[in-house]
From TrEMBL, chains A, B:
Alphabetical keyword list: Aminoacyl-tRNA synthetase, ATP-binding, Ligase, Nucleotide-binding, Protein biosynthesis
Annotated PANTHER family: TRYPTOPHAN--TRNA LIGASE, MITOCHONDRIAL (PTHR43766)
Pfam families in the cross-refs: tRNA-synt_1b
MF terms in GO: ATP binding; tryptophan-tRNA ligase activity
Organism field: Chitinibacter bivalviorum
Catalyses which reaction(s): tRNA(Trp) + L-tryptophan + ATP = L-tryptophyl-tRNA(Trp) + AMP + diphosphate + H(+)
Gene: trpS
InterPro entries, A to Z: aa-tRNA-synth_Ic, Rossmann-like_a/b/a_fold, Trp-tRNA-ligase, Trp-tRNA_synthetase
Protein name in the entry: Tryptophan--tRNA ligase
Gene3D superfamilies for this protein: HUPs (3.40.50.620), Tyrosyl-Transfer RNA Synthetase (1.10.240.10)
Source species, domain of life: Bacteria
Amino acid sequence: MSHTDSQTVVVTGDRTTGPLHLGHFAGSLQTRLNLQQNHNPFILLADTQALADHQGDYCKVRQAVIDVALDYLAVGIDPKKSTILIQSMVPELAELSFYMMNLVSVARLERNPTVKSELRAKGQERDVAAGFLTYPVSQAADITALRGTLIPVGEDQLPMIEQTNEIVRRFNRMVGENILNECEALLSNTTRLPGIDGKGKMSRSAGNHIALSASSDDITAAVNKMYTDANHLTIGSPGQVEGNVVFSFLDAFDPDSAKIAELKAQYQHGGLADSVIKARLNEVLQALIGPIRERRAEFAKDPDAVLSMLLCGSAKARQTAVLTLHKVKTAMGMYYF
Amino acid sequence: MSHTDSQTVVVTGDRTTGPLHLGHFAGSLQTRLNLQQNHNPFILLADTQALADHQGDYCKVRQAVIDVALDYLAVGIDPKKSTILIQSMVPELAELSFYMMNLVSVARLERNPTVKSELRAKGQERDVAAGFLTYPVSQAADITALRGTLIPVGEDQLPMIEQTNEIVRRFNRMVGENILNECEALLSNTTRLPGIDGKGKMSRSAGNHIALSASSDDITAAVNKMYTDANHLTIGSPGQVEGNVVFSFLDAFDPDSAKIAELKAQYQHGGLADSVIKARLNEVLQALIGPIRERRAEFAKDPDAVLSMLLCGSAKARQTAVLTLHKVKTAMGMYYF
């Protein structure tokens, strides 16, 4: 494995399918806030990839680009430290992806476990858009064009990193030179945040989420709806902590872990009402989301400044992508002049 | 169907997999020579597509770009009338293709009869590169980016036109506006030139071709090897004209069709030696290819001029492609500024 330089380059991002929620905060945003202290991560707003996901619902995608950018700024992603870019504003990503399409077989894409499980979830095994089946190629192009070396991912995204490195190795072998660099996964150590209904992970499409822009009332309503332990019928009876959504949330967001351990013991023993743990969680979430919502509203007052930040970020990222594509095309002899 | 203007725009081209041969001359180059009198065709050197075909044999592709350009000039394609462009030099084609990938399903691509038969011929049904399965999308992007309305094709390429128009309709429906225009096929009325061995069509991969740059000796050798009628054992015995490669070539290239009809009658009746019809064909082909070879050698003396012509053609085509992509991205709301 050969890096062209010894510097760590973090590349991460989101498909822009809608505003972000607490699941994103627990799963990736907190990691990014840590990473931006010592690295200058590229954070990619994957609008083109979102189109594949949404079968061309481009109005939704466009709005989501703005929404996700506002969410980033609201949680503390700092454009001075992180480079936020819009995928479609760096056309070299599409161009590199186009070349990489020759370096991976259809059969290999169909075997990609991440793609397979996403297709199963969508019930689209047969009628999948070509752009969806090939999105691992697009992702490989995004990562390598920006010369990413460290990619924060959840466990379910590991096959994407593997596929990226396969493409990189195949390209380098083809041109007989290490033009592109392989990358490593940075596995997030958080467990996935469940939805408020306790059915699988939190996701907007399942409607079991709490948005980062949720109002105070939204938060209270969501906490009240939360699944605890269906067998915890009286306050006095012992309750289950495992699979109890309220405790999962407290584990993820309550800074006082000693207090949580104490509450869990009490709940398991019996004598602790659901209303008590829900009240605590409501307090924790209000304290977490309140300032995010306020900062978000502040940033939303000046959409031009947000767009300008995205323009700068995209232009900055483009410099790197142009250079990579130049190396790729030179190695392939595709400059004729 | 809505054209943005009433002008006919011809788009055609070749995958740059190697120098052209007589099969190309009979099948497409003659049509282009006619078309360039009244239209200004775009002729695309599909180098990126050739990479998919050649599984990344980029050295071959690069050389073929120059070879095919020389062949064009040698047969009389005039850069003042025809715009010759290199696919990879108009990155907007890759970008548009990337967006179009969301408008066609994998199942639909797998059903494309042209792709299916090409895959069968390559014996690659299972291990096809993603870039090959999706090449109809790339072709649709090429045609529509250049605003092609009339596409000269052989019968076997009709499914590509159909697929292009499907993508166009789907895009226009999606954005609720006729941004892209549909195209029509201009079916070539020539029958496919057989290979000199009479086994299927002429193709370089089958080794049964006569290159447009063939030397005088090459031509004579190829004509001598040509398949006539295996049952025409003596001069006096009646010979078959159907499936007789020499007569197929005479039909395609001998300007004196009355004389050919006479020779055919005589051959069928008996009394005409293979050597006589071969001598005539040799003469016809020497007269056809001789000047092409000479002009080719002339142009090859100044490769910089050829490259400069390709640079200008690509830049000119790029103006159109940039404009189309601008309309596409605007319609999709993908300009954020």
